[in-house]
Design brief:
The chain contains 8 helices and 14 strands. It is α+β, with helices and mostly antiparallel strands. The strands form 3 sheets. Strands 1-2-10-7-12-5-4-3 form an 8-stranded mixed β-sheet. It binds N-oxalylglycine (OGA) and nickel (II) ion. GO terms for molecular function: metal ion binding; oxidoreductase activity.
Length: 318
């Protein structure tokens, strides 16, 4: 059974913050400083924002979507080696939310590939490797630059946080979600409410809306500006910032007429980094609210249990 939601709980009138990546990377010091503040505010008030002027060529993004579409269209035999594996297998193809729990539910198809620190790829389609390598590299550079500005906004030392998270070996996963059309829909979930496990997640969709975020206790539609990348903050930014930047709850609904596709890439700490609140943000007035846990263990627990919403964070909450 699919889950249904009511449109009456939705608000859509608020405008999502926009971050101009061009200013973060090439602005004057004053412009950059203003944008760092805007980013800090977006992280604190929303956990969600649109990034414009990010420099990823439209063609590369379209090719990435197309390559994933071709991958989904391969025969079951060709996809079989990647179906039903363990969460830490570097390539997985499946349906539903959790491959162990949601057998047979196919309103969401996904492909998940680990692309950093080790790069993995599927052999087919033939152009997949080149496109995904380039796409991963570009999105990782954007994600790491955003994180750098986030550390700056938090007033924490970049080299310390990079060392604590072992960011040179940052874990990056490339995911595609394919949501087939669902008759009489628009109110049926393709993806249940959840937060993402990493530090930041970057999302690009095929022009079909369906993503909703929970903002100030209300669900709202997200309508990204054309060519913008949607970014949300994840659980490990919440842990690291000792709860200052909360990961945002989000979900996806199906479209009744057309298939929706999203390409999502999450950037997190190294899998073997033990993440805890950064000491710069912990003091007598704000004691640590999370304990340390190895990122790999968190990922495994979050993905293999049917934890609801932000339940995984309770694993480390003090
Ligand atoms: C995800 C996710 C939403 C979407 O992959 O974590 O939240 O719109 N996807 O596809
Ligand atoms: Ni998500």
């Amino acid at each position: 059974m699919a889950s249904f939601i009511s449109h009456t709980e939705l608000v859509a009138e608020e405008i999502i913050p926009t971050i101009d990546f061009g200013i973060l990377s090439n602005g004057t010091p004053d412009q950059r400083s203003d944008m760092v503040q805007a980013l800090a505010k977006a992280c604190e008030d929303w956990g969600f924002f649109m990034v414009v002027n990010h420099g990823i060529p439209d063609q590369l993004r379209d090719e990435m979507l197309e390559a994933f579409k071709t991958l989904f269209d391969l025969s079951d035999d060709e996809k079989r080696p990647y179906v039903g594996g363990h969460v830490l297998d570097p390539i997985r193809i499946g349906t539903g939310f959790n491959s162990k729990i949601d057998i047979g539910k196919c309103w969401r198809h996904y492909a998940k590939i680990f692309v950093h620190p080790e790069f993995h790829s599927v052999p087919k389609p033939l152009n997949f490797r080149n496109i995904s390598q380039e796409y991963s590299k570009c999105t990782r550079a954007i994600g790491l630059e955003l994180l750098k500005a986030i550390w700056e906004g938090l007033g924490i030392d970049e080299s310390r946080v990079k060392a604590a998270l072992k960011l040179d070996s940052a874990f990056q996963i490339l995911v595609a979600n394919l949501y087939p059309p669902y008759p009489n829909s628009g109110t049926t979930f393709g993806f249940l409410p959840h937060s993402d496990h990493g530090l930041v997640t970057l999302l690009y969709q095929n022009g079909v809306d369906g993503l909703q975020i929970k903002h100030k206790d209300r669900w709202m539609y997200v309508k990204p500006a054309p060519n913008s990348i949607l970014v949300n903050t994840g659980d490990h930014l919440e842990i690291l910032s000792n709860g200052k930047y909360k990961s945002v709850l989000h979900r996806a609904v199906l479209n009744s007429e057309v298939a929706r596709m999203s390409v999502v890439t999450a950037i997190g700490p190294a899998l073997d980094a033990i993440v805890e609140p950064i000491p710069d943000l912990v003091n007598g007035d704000s004691p640590a609210v999370f304990r340390g846990m190895k990122y790999r263990d968190y990922l495994e627990q979050q993905q293999s249990n049917s934890l609801v919403e932000k339940g995984a964070l309770n694993l480390v909450r003090l």
